[in-house]
Amino acid sequence: MTSMIEFPWQQEAIIRHSQRLVDSFQHWTGDYLLDVNGSPLETAKALFEAPFVLASHGTELDPVFNYGNRKALELWELSWEEFTRMPSRKTVRNVELEDRKRLLAEAATKGFVNNYSGIRTSSSGQQFLIENVLLWNVLDEQNQYYGQAAFFSNWKFIT
Asked: What is the rounded CA–CA span in Å between residue 69 and residue 126?
């Protein structure tokens, strides 16, 4: 149970998903998400411990988060289990749901969208502005659509 909570990056499914995140980011942007030349396990650990926020959701009709690195879990004030059971729309204020829907559709069409900003809400109700978000489509090993991921390093709490 401890590894589920503290070290999800050690799970085989998360190691594979971490590789999908890295590969898909490079596919769409031509850049590297992070500079790691190690094993898949080392890549999964580096992503989870990265100094930026990284989160992804699946392909459900109401997409549910399937990944959040340590920074994402801290920012949203959730455990791994809580985060990976939550529909991603629940982090968005109601007034921004249409904007989010447009953003996800644009990324689905183009492959990725850069420089998005918006307000999100943590589990305790704390709101924060996320800036310079890069959102991209996650592809599986057969280059099939597997969901979407978001990466950002800039956020400000709103008081």
From this structure: 19
Percentages of the chain per state (helix, strand, coil), in multiples of 5: 40, 30, 30
Distance separating alpha carbons of residues 145 and 119, to the nearest angstrom? 26
The string of pLDDT tens digits covering residues 31-74 is 999 987 889 999 999 999 999 999 999 999 999 999 999 999 99
Rounded Cα–Cα distance for residues 155 and 103 (Å): 18
**Lookup: tokens for 65:** 């988060």
Amino acid identity at 139: L
Amino acid letter, residue 96: E
Give residue-wise pLDDT tens across range 126-141. Answer: 999 999 999 999 999 9
Q: How far is the C-alpha of 21 from the C-alpha of 11, rounded, in Å?
A: 15
Query: Which domains are seen in the chain, by residue range?
Result: 2-158 (3.30.450.20)
φ, ψ of residue 141 in degrees (nearest 5):
-65, -15
Report pTM: 0.91
